[in-house]
Design brief:
196 residues; 16 strands; 6-stranded antiparallel beta sheet; Elongation Factor Tu (Ef-tu), domain 3; single chain; mainly beta
Protein backbone atom coordinates (compact mmCIF):
# COMPACT_ATOMS: atom_id res chain seq x y z
CA UNK A 1 0.00 0.00 0.00
CA UNK A 2 1.46 3.37 -1.03
CA UNK A 3 1.53 6.57 0.98
CA UNK A 4 -1.14 8.08 -1.27
CA UNK A 5 -3.51 5.25 -0.26
CA UNK A 6 -3.23 6.43 3.35
CA UNK A 7 -4.25 10.05 2.73
CA UNK A 8 -7.64 10.92 4.11
CA UNK A 9 -7.69 14.72 3.91
CA UNK A 10 -6.27 17.27 1.50
CA UNK A 11 -6.54 20.98 2.23
CA UNK A 12 -5.87 22.65 -1.15
CA UNK A 13 -5.07 26.29 -1.69
CA UNK A 14 -3.35 28.26 -4.41
CA UNK A 15 -0.45 30.44 -3.35
CA UNK A 16 0.05 33.47 -5.56
CA UNK A 17 2.44 36.23 -4.61
CA UNK A 18 0.78 39.56 -5.34
CA UNK A 19 1.49 43.18 -4.64
CA UNK A 20 -1.57 45.44 -4.52
CA UNK A 21 -1.21 49.19 -4.93
CA UNK A 22 -4.15 51.58 -4.51
CA UNK A 23 -3.98 55.01 -6.11
CA UNK A 24 -5.30 58.22 -4.55
CA UNK A 25 -8.38 57.93 -6.78
CA UNK A 26 -9.13 54.44 -5.45
CA UNK A 27 -7.93 52.48 -8.49
CA UNK A 28 -6.26 49.21 -7.57
CA UNK A 29 -3.32 47.74 -9.43
CA UNK A 30 -2.21 44.16 -8.86
CA UNK A 31 1.19 42.78 -9.83
CA UNK A 32 1.81 39.04 -9.70
CA UNK A 33 5.33 38.13 -8.65
CA UNK A 34 6.55 34.65 -9.58
CA UNK A 35 4.44 31.63 -10.45
CA UNK A 36 1.45 30.27 -8.59
CA UNK A 37 1.76 26.96 -6.80
CA UNK A 38 -0.56 24.62 -4.97
CA UNK A 39 -0.11 24.14 -1.25
CA UNK A 40 -1.81 21.35 0.65
CA UNK A 41 -1.84 19.54 3.97
CA UNK A 42 -1.92 15.76 3.96
CA UNK A 43 -3.24 13.73 6.87
CA UNK A 44 -2.91 9.99 7.03
CA UNK A 45 -5.54 7.50 7.97
CA UNK A 46 -4.62 5.68 11.20
CA UNK A 47 -2.17 2.80 10.75
CA UNK A 48 -0.09 0.54 12.99
CA UNK A 49 3.64 0.05 13.10
CA UNK A 50 3.06 -3.48 11.77
CA UNK A 51 1.70 -2.15 8.46
CA UNK A 52 3.96 -2.64 5.39
CA UNK A 53 6.92 -0.25 5.21
CA UNK A 54 5.66 1.50 2.05
CA UNK A 55 2.68 2.85 3.98
CA UNK A 56 4.80 4.88 6.38
CA UNK A 57 5.31 8.62 6.72
CA UNK A 58 7.20 10.84 4.24
CA UNK A 59 9.39 12.17 7.12
CA UNK A 60 11.08 15.21 5.69
CA UNK A 61 11.43 18.62 7.26
CA UNK A 62 14.25 20.37 5.45
CA UNK A 63 12.41 21.10 2.18
CA UNK A 64 14.94 19.27 0.01
CA UNK A 65 13.10 16.00 -0.56
CA UNK A 66 10.73 15.74 -3.51
CA UNK A 67 7.71 13.47 -3.44
CA UNK A 68 5.33 12.55 -6.23
CA UNK A 69 1.79 11.94 -5.05
CA UNK A 70 -1.19 10.79 -7.04
CA UNK A 71 -3.74 13.42 -6.11
CA UNK A 72 -6.01 11.64 -3.62
CA UNK A 73 -9.43 10.31 -4.58
CA UNK A 74 -11.85 11.83 -5.44
CA UNK A 75 -9.74 14.67 -6.89
CA UNK A 76 -7.37 12.55 -9.00
CA UNK A 77 -9.75 11.74 -11.87
CA UNK A 78 -11.98 13.90 -14.05
CA UNK A 79 -15.59 14.09 -12.90
CA UNK A 80 -16.70 14.26 -16.52
CA UNK A 81 -17.17 11.52 -19.10
CA UNK A 82 -13.97 12.24 -21.03
CA UNK A 83 -12.22 9.43 -22.89
CA UNK A 84 -9.50 9.21 -25.52
CA UNK A 85 -6.45 11.36 -26.17
CA UNK A 86 -6.92 15.11 -25.83
CA UNK A 87 -4.18 17.10 -27.60
CA UNK A 88 -3.30 20.79 -27.43
CA UNK A 89 -3.63 22.71 -30.69
CA UNK A 90 -1.19 25.35 -31.86
CA UNK A 91 -2.02 29.07 -31.76
CA UNK A 92 -5.40 29.85 -33.24
CA UNK A 93 -6.83 32.88 -34.99
CA UNK A 94 -8.84 33.85 -31.92
CA UNK A 95 -5.62 34.37 -29.94
CA UNK A 96 -5.83 31.25 -27.78
CA UNK A 97 -2.09 30.64 -27.86
CA UNK A 98 -0.99 27.91 -25.43
CA UNK A 99 1.99 29.97 -24.23
CA UNK A 100 3.15 31.02 -20.75
CA UNK A 101 0.63 33.24 -18.98
CA UNK A 102 -2.35 32.09 -21.05
CA UNK A 103 -5.51 30.90 -19.30
CA UNK A 104 -7.06 29.64 -22.56
CA UNK A 105 -5.97 26.48 -24.35
CA UNK A 106 -7.45 25.07 -27.55
CA UNK A 107 -7.64 21.27 -27.67
CA UNK A 108 -8.79 18.60 -30.07
CA UNK A 109 -9.51 14.89 -29.83
CA UNK A 110 -11.14 12.97 -27.06
CA UNK A 111 -14.88 12.76 -26.46
CA UNK A 112 -17.16 13.51 -23.53
CA UNK A 113 -16.77 16.23 -20.92
CA UNK A 114 -14.19 17.65 -18.55
CA UNK A 115 -15.71 19.45 -15.57
CA UNK A 116 -14.88 22.73 -13.84
CA UNK A 117 -12.74 21.88 -10.82
CA UNK A 118 -10.99 18.94 -12.51
CA UNK A 119 -7.23 18.82 -11.99
CA UNK A 120 -5.20 18.29 -15.17
CA UNK A 121 -1.60 18.28 -16.35
CA UNK A 122 0.08 18.57 -19.72
CA UNK A 123 2.47 15.87 -20.93
CA UNK A 124 5.43 18.23 -21.35
CA UNK A 125 5.74 19.48 -17.75
CA UNK A 126 4.66 18.60 -14.20
CA UNK A 127 2.62 21.69 -13.20
CA UNK A 128 -0.94 20.89 -12.08
CA UNK A 129 -3.80 23.10 -13.29
CA UNK A 130 -7.48 23.33 -12.48
CA UNK A 131 -10.20 23.76 -15.09
CA UNK A 132 -12.28 26.86 -14.43
CA UNK A 133 -15.12 25.88 -16.80
CA UNK A 134 -16.67 22.73 -18.24
CA UNK A 135 -15.33 21.52 -21.60
CA UNK A 136 -17.52 19.58 -24.03
CA UNK A 137 -15.23 17.56 -26.29
CA UNK A 138 -16.86 16.53 -29.57
CA UNK A 139 -13.84 14.67 -30.96
CA UNK A 140 -13.86 16.44 -34.33
CA UNK A 141 -13.27 20.17 -33.80
CA UNK A 142 -11.21 22.45 -31.57
CA UNK A 143 -12.60 23.00 -28.10
CA UNK A 144 -11.59 25.60 -25.53
CA UNK A 145 -10.19 24.78 -22.09
CA UNK A 146 -9.96 27.48 -19.43
CA UNK A 147 -7.20 26.70 -16.92
CA UNK A 148 -6.06 28.19 -13.63
CA UNK A 149 -3.45 29.34 -12.87
CA UNK A 150 -2.03 30.60 -16.14
CA UNK A 151 0.33 28.34 -18.07
CA UNK A 152 3.95 28.30 -16.94
CA UNK A 153 5.17 26.72 -20.18
CA UNK A 154 4.19 26.53 -23.84
CA UNK A 155 2.05 23.40 -24.21
CA UNK A 156 1.71 23.30 -28.01
CA UNK A 157 1.43 19.68 -29.14
CA UNK A 158 1.23 18.28 -25.60
CA UNK A 159 -1.49 15.88 -24.49
CA UNK A 160 -3.79 16.45 -21.51
CA UNK A 161 -3.55 14.16 -18.47
CA UNK A 162 -6.97 14.08 -16.79
CA UNK A 163 -6.99 10.81 -14.82
CA UNK A 164 -4.55 9.65 -12.11
CA UNK A 165 -3.09 13.15 -11.99
CA UNK A 166 0.15 13.30 -10.03
CA UNK A 167 1.71 16.29 -8.29
CA UNK A 168 5.38 16.83 -7.41
CA UNK A 169 5.79 18.50 -4.04
CA UNK A 170 8.26 19.25 -1.31
CA UNK A 171 7.52 19.73 2.39
CA UNK A 172 7.35 23.24 3.75
CA UNK A 173 9.91 24.03 6.43
CA UNK A 174 7.50 23.30 9.22
CA UNK A 175 7.53 20.74 12.00
CA UNK A 176 6.46 17.24 10.99
CA UNK A 177 3.55 16.21 13.21
CA UNK A 178 2.45 12.75 14.17
CA UNK A 179 0.52 11.18 17.00
CA UNK A 180 0.25 7.72 18.53
CA UNK A 181 -3.14 6.94 20.04
CA UNK A 182 -4.22 4.56 22.80
CA UNK A 183 -4.70 1.73 20.29
CA UNK A 184 -1.11 2.13 19.03
CA UNK A 185 -2.44 3.73 15.85
CA UNK A 186 -0.22 6.34 14.21
CA UNK A 187 -1.46 9.38 12.29
CA UNK A 188 0.73 11.95 10.56
CA UNK A 189 0.25 15.39 9.08
CA UNK A 190 2.51 17.39 6.83
CA UNK A 191 2.16 20.48 4.62
CA UNK A 192 3.61 20.48 1.10
CA UNK A 193 4.01 22.93 -1.76
CA UNK A 194 4.02 22.07 -5.42
CA UNK A 195 7.24 22.20 -7.38
CA UNK A 196 7.73 21.83 -11.12
Amino acid sequence: MAISDRIRFVDWQIIQNQVVNTSLTGDRYVAVIGNSNWQFTLRSAPFTRNDPSDSKMPLSTDGTDVFTFTIPTPLDDSKGTVSGTVSVSSSTTDGAAPTPGSFTVKVSGGTGTLKAGDFIKFSNHSKVYMLSADVDLDGSSEDTMLVYPGLVKDVTGATVVYDNVQIKATPLNQPFEYSIGNDDLIEWEQTFREII
